[in-house]
């Protein structure tokens, strides 16, 4: 793992038209020997060649680092952290935090960037999930979700379907194949009539589009919902994107096939 200072010097070096230790030392007001030691470490790790040029591995490493840096910086700055503090804190986070934490903050920053796009429009905008790749970088994201029953008396009630899957779900964003992946889990519930425990698992799932019923593919205990089935809307008061789709599901309890029941799936980015 590179230290914060090593990455600062490396990024400053590659941004120069003519990379030099002297130039980097001048930018940060430190001795040339300090920069030289840091860049020597970069070379030893295969990031730089003897002419202070990025290697193939170095270009990939710096590109990945810069992407994660911008995501986390965006997340911090949108929460009232001053620009200078946000930049310094981002370097510290990337140096010392676990990969799990860095991934979570980076994901939050990525979604924050997408929200900014819709906020700038200044009006309520809805997009289909098939177009989400235009606003969110391609990749895999862990996303919170909830299943609600049909609204009754204006109240939203959580559906039993919410317990039929592991939380969170995985959202895969690709230009041509974006989807949600929900891992199935076995549900257990007491029967109020027969006083026995019932166990079941999702059997089938579908949604309707343009008047046609589309079956959702289920394999390896995972339901694959195409992102095109969802519509997303920007919720300004929460600064999030909210996606939703009405699904119809059946589950099997023992040898009994339960009747179809609808539920509204909502995801939060």
Keywords:
269 residues; alpha+beta; Arc Repressor Mutant, subunit A; 2 domains; 9-stranded antiparallel sheet; 5-stranded antiparallel sheet; 6 helices; elongated
Folded structure, characterized:
The protein is an alpha+beta fold and 269 residues long. A hairpin with a 2-residue loop joins strand 9 and strand 10. The protein folds into two domains: 4-97, Arc Repressor Mutant, subunit A; 126-268, Immunoglobulin-like. The two termini are 29 Å apart. It is built from six helices and 14 strands. The chain is elongated. It has helices spanning 4-14, 21-28, 32-44, 56-77, 83-96, 99-121; strands spanning 126-128, 139-143, 145-148, 169-173, 179-183, 187-190, 197-209, 212-215, 217-219, 222-226, 231-235, 240-253, 256-257, 261-268. Strands 1, 3, 6, 7, 8, 11, 12, 13 and 14 form a nine-stranded antiparallel beta sheet that branches. Helix 1 crosses helix 3 (32-44).
Give the SSE map.
Blueprint: H1 4-14, H2 21-28, H3 32-44, H4 56-77, H5 83-96, H6 99-121, E1 126-128, E2 139-143, E3 145-148, E4 169-173, E5 179-183, E6 187-190, E7 197-209, E8 212-215, E9 217-219, E10 222-226, E11 231-235, E12 240-253, E13 256-257, E14 261-268
Antiparallel strand pairs: 1-11, 2-4, 3-14, 4-5, 5-10, 6-7, 7-8, 7-12, 9-10, 11-12, 12-13, 12-14
């Amino acid at each position: 793992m590179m230290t914060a200072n090593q990455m600062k010097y490396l990024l400053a070096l590659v941004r120069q038209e003519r990379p030099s230790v002297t130039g980097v030392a001048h930018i940060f007001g430190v001795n040339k020997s300090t920069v030289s030691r840091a860049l020597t470490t970069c070379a030893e790790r295969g990031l730089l060649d003897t002419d202070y040029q990025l290697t193939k591995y170095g270009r990939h490493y710096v590109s990945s680092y810069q992407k994660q840096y911008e995501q986390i910086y965006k997340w911090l700055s949108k929460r009232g952290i001053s620009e200078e503090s946000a930049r310094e804190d981002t370097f510290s986070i990337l140096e010392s935090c676990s990969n799990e934490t860095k991934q979570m903050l980076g994901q939050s920053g990525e979604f924050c960037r997408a929200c900014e796009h819709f906020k700038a429009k200044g009006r309520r905008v809805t997009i289909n999930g098939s177009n989400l790749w235009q606003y969110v970088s391609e990749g895999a994201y862990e996303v919170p979700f909830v299943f609600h029953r049909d609204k009754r008396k204006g109240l939203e009630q959580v559906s039993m379907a919410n317990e039929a899957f592991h939380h969170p779900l995985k959202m895969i964003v690709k230009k041509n194949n974006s989807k949600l992946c929900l891992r199935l889990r076995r549900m257990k519930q007491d029967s109020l009539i027969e006083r026995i425990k019932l166990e079941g698992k999702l059997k089938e799932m579908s949604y309707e589009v343009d008047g046609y019923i589309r079956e959702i593919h289920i394999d390896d205990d995972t339901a694959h919902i195409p992102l095109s089935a969802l519509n997303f809307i920007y919720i300004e008061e929460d600064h999030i994107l909210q996606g939703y789709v009405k699904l119809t599901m059946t589950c099997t309890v023992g040898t009994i096939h339960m009747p179809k029941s609808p539920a509204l799936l909502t995801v939060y980015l």
